[in-house]
Amino acid sequence: MARYDYVEKAVKVTRREFLGVMGVAGAVLWTGAYVATDLVQDRTKYIKMRAQGIYKDDAKAKIRQSHNNQAVTDVYKKFAQNPLSHLAEELFHTKYVDRTKLV
Known about the structure:
By secondary structure, the protein is mainly α. Helix content is 62%, strand content 0%. It has two domains: 12-60; 62-94, G Protein Gi Gamma 2 (Irregular), CATH 4.10.260.
């Protein structure tokens, strides 16, 4: 069996080269962080705009509570008997789905 000896060569980097490489690396990291923060700020801005629109529409609505809505009470009378019945649970209530990974 042959025997191989591996000897690492010393890498000589001058101070100027080191500063240049580190400056480029820092600029790349800063740019990535800036883009990421910009995306988060845009997302937050759109979420706030959507919430304001929903609140504005809700303030204009004549019926703002489901128990005062005649259409809802008619549906319960015709199909679901009463608000907490088994049939109402099956028809109207949903299960929680964790969507935190989508955000």
